[in-house]
Amino acid sequence: MIAEGFTVVAGSLGDQGGSVARTLKQHGRAVRALTHNRWSPAARALVDDGVEVLNDNLLNPEVVVRDLAGAASVFGAFTPFDEGGLQAELRQVRNLAWASVRAGVTRFVYSSVGDPEQDKEVEAKGIWGVERLLQRFDLPLTLLRPAFFMENIDEFALRREDDSGLVLRMPLPETTEVHWIAVEDVGTLTRLAFDRPRAFGAGPVELGADRLSFAAACAMMSDVLGEHVRYEQIALGEVKDRHARGMYRWFQSYAHYEPDVAKLRRIHPGLMTFHQWLEAGHLDLSKVEHGSSAAA
Fold this sequence. Notes:
Layout: E1 6-10, H1 15-26, E2 31-35, H2 41-48, E3 52-55, H3 61-68, E4 71-77, H4 85-103, E5 107-111, H5 116-124, H6 130-135, E6 141-146, E7 148-149, H7 152-157, E8 158-161, E9 165-170, E10 177-181, H8 183-195, E11 205-207, E12 210-213, H9 214-225, E13 229-233, H10 242-253, H11 261-267, H12 274-279, E14 289-290
Parallel strand pairs: 1-2, 1-4, 2-3, 4-5, 5-6, 6-11, 7-10, 8-14, 9-13
Antiparallel strand pairs: 8-9, 10-12
Helix pairs in contact: 1-8, 3-4
């Protein structure tokens, strides 16, 4: 059991939560990660990195209050793309926020997929949007809105076909331009949101480092990897992964990001462009599926 004054990371089994937990730990914070499966490979990797990992039920408010007792700060990252959808995300956020108020935390950082368009859609259904729900609590709050993760490439989209090499397969036109950010940089910016909250200001902060079309991303990968990467637009129904399917649907319908990249670079000078991320060897080709029928 770690001493009081620790930072809680909820949503720790995803790439984003894992990056935040590791970054905070590497910079001297005691970290407690909450997970629904302490024995998963992702959770055990966090334990190996010195993070305390607890089984938690974020849908049970009493359990969350218990596990946040003694916490000094909290990070949360849930999405409406996973099992349970938006309703589950809202319940988890509400329970985490209430427990944080009870614990008297000095900073609450939440990573949201929300933007004003999402809030309008949520309100149309008679439900509070996640960000607006959090703003109803008496919390020292920082809201982050990461754009398209660079890690989505090897986790969801890049495939190797036997006859045509590497193919980037997504249900979006290749001319679609998105803002990109590395999960590692989200971890660093989150740490800085705890250490220097005034640098981020009062409103939601959109996180991005580079704006590129998928066609341009393919060209960069071809250049850095030394082999041709082509783009193929697929139907949304071909996307096998639930989380990826929800993410793509979000980008098709609602997503609109305009991060202040210059401001983010002042806060975090090491913020990586997509090309720098590739050059640093962060694209993990060992995750890439093989076969012409492979899809996200």
